[in-house]
Every structure is written in structure tokens, then in C-alpha cells.
Write a structure and sequence with these properties.
heterodimer, A: 501 residues, D-Maltodextrin-Binding Protein, domain 2, Dipeptide-binding Protein, domain 1, Dipeptide-binding Protein, domain 3, 6-stranded mixed β-sheet, 16 helices, B: mainly alpha, globular, peptide transmembrane transporter activity (chain A), SBP_5 (chain A), Peptide/nickel transport system substrate-binding protein (chain A), signal (chain A), SBP_5_dom (chain A)
Chain lengths: 501, 315
């Protein structure tokens, strides 16, 4: 009797196990912010949006722009973009997705109070409905990056009816045209979405439910995957890759991200730029020459991150192939310091966000540059405080990363141009400004890449305005039962094509 | 009695007012510009920053910001979370039961382990049992929660696969799963308090056991179990109960590290995330709510003391 009960219990557990496979549980690094494509700003939020909200365009593995809710586009002239739309697409509330909805959504992104999309599509002047399947977008000035903005949140189309009804609370119940619709959200605990039966590409959506669980601790997130409480984690640490590889029930995929890790140098932002280090590019060159990027990557990141000297990642067609790190050369660094007339160790301070791995990076750099003649002081600071310090110029050098954008403009202009909002070191060179502005409107890919090559040659090799260290990697781990994951450099988890056996 | 109660209630108002000024003031001293943090990677756009400041009234003078907040808080409106745009009051009400459940479970574990261990080690003073109990108590007190938590996850979830490594299921949804998700964090929290309770119980018991009334009880030929259990322990428990109440209050304020490790969506996690994201309304609301809980608890404790000890009533 007892045996039969036990067997029955085991059988029901087994059934429960089979039912579990109906849900894909994904561990996220943090809790996403508001789920309104106009107001959202976190990276993890974009992972959830990949299930909820389709965009006009998407990108593929080669970072090429491919249609999603659109079927195609054409430039009528350099300032006029015509987009044709997919037929028969419905929002989660059953409303039709048409040119009017696209016009409404773009205007919402552009004008809604608190919109984070405004700066992304600020070059848009007006959107006009040509017919229900066609929309025409007029720009204030020619812009090469504009189309790529429509591959992210600025290209997400929301149901006008639902958005009007919900107003600023739309993020609590977003209604889009994505493969999944929102079931519930418990802040800091879970976000649950279920398959949308009327999705336009329903044939490629195989998993009925996805639950996103924010688990900030790296060890605990991995433990959840190992114990089977999660099927997939958004990211693991480089030193956990081996642990996952040893486990035959798990798989790990490491692939380049769009962003970079860098050191911002304060050249002209306030009184703290009043140092020999800030005035003389030879001293900054010596500092850079003392750094061995590969060795740091090896020590701190198991050699997983790829050293770089430029902000554009290798996956991008605009990556400048010839522009590589110079390699560590302490003798040359010392010679440069002598040439600059420096005697004694050069005092430099580096602000480092207070994470274990970044502190370690700081310590390795400290040891490296000391050999060349620098006395580097590390200033570990909580991230939000460090941002403010950098913004008002209260730093000498600052170790900071950028998550990256598909279009090279998003990795360069705002950081290098003298008018750039995140040019915290206040580097300014009119020639570089001119080249960056030109690259913004250049439509020929080869010509544009050549412009970026010139920008890097002047702003980095000659002026030493910033030091790029490496391109990080997205490291996704999942159960071997999951198949069909498509690694794309933007790090999103696209549910189309995923299968859970 | 009623006059006393009203007077006591009246004291709460200035306490809360002073607290509200402190919470608001301390927050202003916190480095980091909330507008910059909220803008995230859009922080390069001065227009975005100006817009955030205007919307959140960060461009107004501080006294105005404070009065605006207080005026609405007294009506129970703590505003909206800047990060996820949900009402702060809703977040607090959502997280409070979670933390309450965790606190009760941790406290029960602490009581079940701490008090018997203290009694046994006092009775068996300087014997191996006493040394063992003392050793374990020291372990419980000095072991960092995050370390113990991770070790438990690795053992019970990853190696043995008995318990879910993290997360939370409400009691009302699935009691068994709810216990499974909270037992490890409750044990981690409880083990530290158990150590403290054990040490205090042991000290109080040693004191009680040397008292005259215990000697008298033994002289009367009472069974040793009755002497220890009914005579000594009862008296020894009074300071332990006081200590227990304080520890329970601390548990309700949210177990910051433990909730973070086990990803329990409670008070502690709410406030940590809010501080790191500079989500001021949430920080203000949660700290105020915690203060309110403490003030209420201490009022209840005062009433209980009066009920227990009639001598206090005339004072």
C-alpha cells in the first residue's frame, strides 16, 4: 500500500516535471524597470521586451537590419524614409497594427513626458500615414543611425487604444504586438508572460509560457540553473564558464557584446583636469603603453574578453580592423615620460565602480603602470555616486563600461564629440567633431568606416583622449533541453525558435 | 489609564515628524544625483535630465520638496516608485507579509534552538554538552549570513536537490512550496538569533539557579525538572523575552543580506534596491513604515508591561 502510494506520488511528480517544460524560466541580473517602451531604460528590461513588443526592424547575427513589423523600407531622399508594414498583425488587445498605430507610437516616443526615446529619434520631424500599410517619416536632417534606432525600443509599436486608456500607467499592463503577452508582474520577484495565439509569426513560437526571475547574486543565479530551478540565465561570470561546461546537462554560449570597457581621462572637465597628466598627451600615452590588456583579461576574466583599442566591436561592419592595441611597452612608456620632462612617479587617481571584478582590474592596472612610473591611487565608489562624480568632473580617470549600440554612432558621438552628453572628460577637437558629424550622415558603409578610422587615429592615437580596454561578452547558460537560441551581439533573448524538450 | 494612553499616543506624532525630517535630510546627504541614475544610459542628454528633475520636483527648493512629501504621506499617499511607477504604499503592503512570514519562521527556529540549548548548557555547566552548545552558539553568531546562505544553497539545492535555491511562493498560493522557499533563509536568520538567545538564556539561568528560592525548592525535595523548568526558567525568561522582542522587531525591518542572497522579495530587498537606484519615494516610504512598525511595537510593549506589572500603572 505504502509502496503504491509512493509510486503514485513519484508518478505525479514526473507529470509535474513534464508540465514544467511548458514554462521557460529565465534568470535576470536585476529587476527590470517600467515595462513601457517609451519610458524604459534598463538593459534587462529589453530582454523582457523581446517577448512582449515587436519592433519595426530587428537585427540579425551579422548586425544587419532586417524587417520585423515592417516588410521593407526605402529612402525617398536623404531626409525621407518610407516604411511598408506587415499585413494582418494584431496587438494583444485584438486591435489591428497599421500605419496609424505606427504614427501614434513614434509620436508617443517623441513627445511623451519622461520619454527616454526622444534623444534616440530626436531627428524625426514628422510621421505621416500614406496608406494603412505605409508610413512616411520625415527627418530634420539626414541621419545614418536613425534606422537602427527602430530596431530597439524606439521601434516598438504599442496599441494606441490601450496606451490612450492607460496613460502613464501603460507600463503596468503593456499591450504590444509581440509573441507573448503579460500575465503578471510582482516587483522584484517575477514577470510572467504567455504565448499570444494571434501572433503574426506564431509558427516560430513553441514555448507556452516564460517566467523572468530577477536574481542579482551571480552564485545564486547559477545555483538555480544547476539545480533545475531555472532553464536559462541571462548572464554568468567568465570564471563560471568552466563549471557550466563540466555539467553535461547544461550549455554555455559566450559571444561578443556591442559595448566596451574603457578608461575615461579627464582632460578638460573642471579643476581636476589641471594636471600634467591632463595637459600632456605623451604622459597619457605612457600610461596606456604600460597597460597589458590581454594580461588583465587573463587574470580577471579567464581570458574571455577580447582586448581592443576602439569603441566599435568586431561584430560590427564598421569595426576598423587595423586599429588594434599597441601592446605593452614599458621602456617606451618611460622614454615618453622622460621626454615630457617628468621626474618622480606621476600621481594619478582612478575612480572605479565598487564591483569585485572592476576593483581587481584597477589593482592590476595599478601594478602595471607603477612599473612605468605612475603612482596610481584607486578610488572605489558606489556606481550611482561615481556617475555623478564623473558628470561634474570630480575625477582624473574613470573606469567605465558602455553596453553598446547597433549603429557605431551610438558608441562614439556622445562620448568623443565636444557636444556629446557623455563626454565626461570634456575632450574637444574641432577636426574630430567635423569627422563625427560627417559619419553621422554618410550612407556609404566603406566611407563611413574610413571616417571612424580617422576619428580614432586623431582622438585616440594622437590626442589620447580615452583608453579602450576590451569588448566584453554575453555569456548565456541554459539547460541542454533548450534549443534554438540565437546569439546576437545585442544580448537579447529572442523567444522565436526556442524549444524546450 | 486612558489619559496615559492618549499622552503616549501624542508622543508618537513628534517622534514621527522628527524621523521624517531625518529620513529626508539623510537622503539628501547621499551622494549621487537621482536624475543621473534614473536617466541611465540616456544621461548624456541635458533635456532628459531637466525633464526628470522637473517631473520629480527635484528642481524645487528642499523645504518645498519635503512639505509636498509630508502633506501627502499623512494622507497615506507615499507617492510612486520612480523606477517602476508603482505606488509605494502598494509595494510596502506587498512586501510586508513576505518579511513577516520570514521573521516569524526565523524567530520560531531561534526559539526552538536557542532556549533549550541555553537551559541545557546552564544545567550541565562546564560539561561537554555546555562546550558544544557554546561552540555552536558562537558559530551561529559569528557566521556571516551571506556565507552560510550560499553554503546552504550549494548543499541543499545544487548537491542534494532538496530545496529551491531562491525565490518566494506566498503561503496562500502553495503552503508546502512556501515553506520550501523560506526554510533556508529562515534558518540562516534564526541561527544567529538562536546563538544570542542561547547565551542570554544560559546566563540568566545560571543566575536563577544560584538564587535562594531554587535552593529552597530543592530542599523541599522537588523533582529537578520542576525546579529547573517551573522555578528557575520562568524567572530567567524575563530578560530573554525583552531581548526576543527587540530581535523580532529587527527581523521585521527586513533582513537585507539574507533577502538579497535568497532573492526573497521582502522589505530588505525593497530598500536595498531602492537605495542603489536612488528611488527616493520608496526609500522614504519604507523607512517611514519601518519606523511606524517600531513605534507601534513599543507602544504595545508598554501596554503589556502595564498589564503584567500593576506597579507601573500608578506611575
Amino acid at each position: 500500500m505504502i509502496r503504491r502510494t509512493l509510486l503514485a506520488a513519484l508518478a505525479s511528480l514526473g507529470l509535474a516535471g513534464a508540465a514544467e517544460a511548458q514554462t521557460l524560466r529565465i534568470g535576470l541580473r536585476e529587476d527590470p524597470d517600467i515595462l513601457d517602451p517609451t519610458l524604459a531604460r534598463t538593459f534587462v528590461g529589453r530582454i523582457v521586451f523581446a517577448s512582449l513588443c515587436d519592433k519595426l526592424f530587428d537585427i540579425n547575427e551579422r548586425l544587419e537590419i532586417v524587417p520585423q513589423l515592417a516588410t521593407g523600407y526605402a529612402w525617398e531622399d536623404p531626409k525621407t524614409l518610407r516604411i511598408t508594414l506587415r499585413e494582418g498583425v494584431r496587438f494583444h488587445d485584438g486591435e489591428a497594427m497599421d500605419a496609424e498605430a505606427v504614427r501614434y507610437s513614434l509620436n508617443r516616443h517623441l513627445t511623451m513626458q519622461g520619454s527616454f526615446r526622444r534623444s534616440e529619434i530626436g531627428t524625426m520631424e514628422a510621421a505621416e500615414v500614406v496608406d494603412p500599410r505605409t508610413i512616411r517619416i520625415r527627418l530634420k536632417a539626414p541621419s545614418s543611425p536613425f534606422l537602427s534606432q527602430l530596431t530597439d525600443r524606439a521601434g516598438m509599436i504599442v496599441s494606441p487604444k490601450a496606451a490612450e486608456a492607460a496613460g502613464r500607467n501603460f507600463g503596468n499592463a503593456p499591450v504590444c504586438a509581440g509573441p507573448y503577452r503579460l500575465v503578471e508582474r510582482v516587483a522584484q520577484d517575477r514577470i510572467v508572460v504567455e504565448r499570444f495565439p494571434d501572433y503574426w509569426d506564431a509558427g516560430r513560437v513553441h514555448i507556452p509560457r516564460i517566467t523572468f526571475l530577477p536574481i542579482p547574486d551571480n552564485t545564486v543565479r547559477l545555483a538555480n540553473l544547476q539545480s533545475g530551478a531555472l532553464e536559462m540565465v541571462q548572464t554568468i561570470e567568465p570564471d563560471d564558464i568552466k563549471t557550466v561546461q563540466r555539467n553535461s546537462r547544461l550549455k554555455v554560449v559566450a559571444y561578443d557584446e556591442l559595448g566596451y570597457q574603457s578608461i575615461v581621462l579627464n582632460i578638460g572637465n573642471g579643476p581636476r583636469a589641471n594636471t600634467a597628466f591632463a595637459r600632456d598627451p605623451r604622459i597619457r600615452a605612457a600610461f596606456e603603453l604600460a597597460i597589458d590588456r590581454q594580461a588583465i583579461s587573463q587574470v580577471v576574466y579567464e581570458g574571455v574578453y577580447a582586448p581592443t583599442a576602439q569603441p566599435i566591436p568586431p561584430a560590427s561592419p564598421f569595426h576598423v580592423p587595423g586599429f588594434a592595441p599597441e601592446g605593452r611597452d614599458v621602456a617606451r612608456a618611460r622614454a615618453l615620460l622622460r621626454e615630457a620632462g617628468v621626474t618622480g612617479p606621476v600621481p594619478v587617481e582612478m575612480t572605479v565602480p565598487n564591483n569585485p571584478d572592476l576593483r581587481q582590474v584597477g589593482e592590476v592596472i595599478q601594478a602595471m603602470v607603477q612599473e612605468a612610473g605612475f603612482a596610481l591611487k584607486l578610488n572605489a565608489m558606489e556606481f550611482a555616486s561615481s556617475l555623478q562624480a564623473a558628470n561634474r568632473g570630480d575625477f582624473e580617470t574613470y573606469l567605465v563600461a558602455w553596453s553598446g549600440r547597433v549603429d557605431p554612432d551610438g558608441n562614439t558621438w556622445t562620448f568623443i564629440h565636444s557636444q556629446g552628453g557623455q563626454n565626461d572628460g570634456k575632450y574637444a577637437n574641432p577636426e574630430v567633431d567635423r569627422l563625427l558629424d560627417e559619419a553621422r550622415v554618410e550612407t556609404d558603409a566603406a566611407a563611413r568606416r574610413a571616417l571612424y578610422a580617422k576619428v580614432f587615429e586623431i582622438s585616440l592615437r594622437q590626442d589620447r583622449s580615452r583608453i579602450y580596454l576590451w569588448h566584453r561578452k554575453n555569456i548565456v547558460a541554459h539547460t541542454a533541453r533548450l534549443s534554438g537560441f540565437l546569439p546576437i551581439a545585442d544580448g537579447l533573448i529572442r523567444p522565436q525558435g526556442l524549444r524546450l524538450n | 489609564m486612558l489619559a496615559w494612553f492618549l499622552r503616549r499616543l501624542g508622543q508618537i506624532v513628534p517622534t514621527l515628524l522628527i524621523l521624517s525630517v531625518m529620513i529626508f535630510g539623510l537622503q539628501q546627504l547621499m551622494p549621487g544625483d537621482p536624475a543621473l541614475t534614473l536617466a541611465g544610459e540616456e544621461r548624456g542628454d541635458p533635456q532628459v535630465l531637466a525633464q526628470i528633475r522637473a517631473e520629480l520636483r527635484l528642481d524645487r527648493p528642499l523645504p518645498e520638496q519635503y512639505l509636498h512629501w509630508v502633506a501627502r504621506a499623512v494622507q497615506g499617499d507615499f507617492g510612486f516608485s520612480w523606477r517602476i511607477r508603482e505606488p509605494v504604499a502598494k509595494l510596502i503592503l506587498e512586501k510586508l507579509p513576505v518579511t513577516f512570514q520570514l521573521a516569524v519562521m526565523a524567530f520560531l527556529i531561534a526559539l526552538v534552538i536557542g532556549i533549550p540549548a541555553g537551559v541545557i548548557s546552564a544545567v550541565r555547566r562546564d560539561r561537554p554538552v555546555d562546550w558544544l552548545a557554546n561552540g555552536l552558539a558562537l558559530f551561529g553568531i559569528s557566521m556571516p549570513n551571506f556565507w552560510l546562505g550560499i553554503m546552504m544553497i550549494l548543499l541543499f539545492s545544487v548537491q542534494l536537490g532538496w530545496l529551491p535555491p531562491s525565490g518566494y511562493v506566498p503561503l496562500t498560493e502553495d503552503p508546502v512550496q512556501s515553506l520550501a522557499t523560506t526554510i533556508m533563509p529562515a534558518f540562516v536568520l534564526g541561527s544567529g538569533i538562536a546563538g544570542v538567545l542561547m547565551r542570554h538564556t544560559r546566563a540568566a539561568m545560571l543566575g536563577a539557579l544560584s538564587q535562594d528560592y531554587v535552593r529552597t525548592a530543592r530542599a523541599k525535595g522537588l523533582d529537578e525538572r520542576v525546579v529547573v523548568g517551573r522555578h528557575a526558567l520562568r524567572n530567567a525568561l524575563i530578560p530573554v523575552v525583552t531581548l526576543g522582542t527587540i530581535e523580532f522587531g529587527r527581523l521585521l525591518a527586513g533582513a537585507v543580506l539574507t533577502e538579497q542572497i535568497f532573492t526573497i522579495p521582502g522589505f530588505g530587498k525593497l530598500i536595498v534596491d531602492a537605495v542603489f537606484n536612488r528611488d527616493y519615494p520608496v526609500v522614504q516610504g519604507v523607512v517611514m513604515a519601518t519606523a511606524l512598525i517600531f513605534v507601534t511595537l513599543s507602544l504595545i510593549a508598554d501596554i503589556l508591561y502595564m498589564a503584567v506589572n500593576p506597579r507601573l500603572r500608578s506611575a
